[in-house]
Amino acid sequence: MRRGSFQAGTVDYAAVGATQAPDLMGYPPKGTTPAEASWRLGSGESRFVTSTEQLLGWGAQRGAGLRVEDVRPASGPMYSGVGFDADGNAVQPSRLDDEQRFDADGTPFVGAGATAHVHGRVGGMRADAELRVISLIDEPRRVGFSLGTVGGSVVSGEESFLLEWRDDDEVWFTVRAFDKPTGVLYRLWRPLVKRRRRALFQGYLQAMSPMYATGS
């Protein structure tokens, strides 16, 4: 697949866009640990629309117990973001790049090139970082985005979040990631990276799944 072109210093890792690669789990970027999980959220257009609003309003992160602060939309022409098609090929930025929306608290929705600070703990482990939105997907039946670490985290890497309203009417939520440790403890004991990732994935599922929201 083709990668996007980024200014030096935009993110703190080299394999930008690799969460979109079909072979991520078999051939992750060198030195990183890949992860992938998918969950059925329900079915129908209403579920897809509701989940889309939640996802683009940082709902997965917030619902996992993280605080999303200091969201700064990209300014000027320095960065327009990268989009990807279903095969992981880079395409022109989506229309979301030109539409700035805000949630009820005034926090900007996800937008290409935006940066945000995420703070909190997941499963007892630190999950603080500065992140940049490196790509957006905005299609009638597929919506999502990718986040790359800029700094301040115990790991370096990328996460992607994708909602799909499939042809069988089911709505699926997929999270893919790769990262490598940067914190001292995580470099000394690499199993912590996988443990942290499992906790994050479980938090995202609980945030997005109607089953957890309704307690059923």
Walk me through what this model shows.
- The protein is of the alpha+beta class.
- The chain contains 5 helices and 11 strands.
- The termini are far apart.
- This is DUF1990 family protein.
- Residues 13-73, 109-206 form the DUF1990 domain.
What attributes does this structure have?
UCP010260; DUF1990 family protein; alpha+beta; DUF1990; 11 strands; 35% strand
Structure class: alpha+beta
Termini separation comes to 41 Å
Low-confidence stretches: 1-9, 77-81, 93-97
**Would you tell me the overall average pLDDT?**
84
Amount of beta strand: 25-35%
SSE topology string: EHHEEEEEEEEEEHHH
Give the overall silhouette.
globular
- Based on CA atoms alone, the radius of gyration comes out at 16 Å
Query: What is the number of E strands?
Result: 11
Percent in helix: 10-25%
Strand count, sense and closure of the main sheet? 9 strands, mixed
- How many helices does DSSP assign? 5
Protein name: DUF1990 family protein
Pfam families: DUF1990 (PF09348)
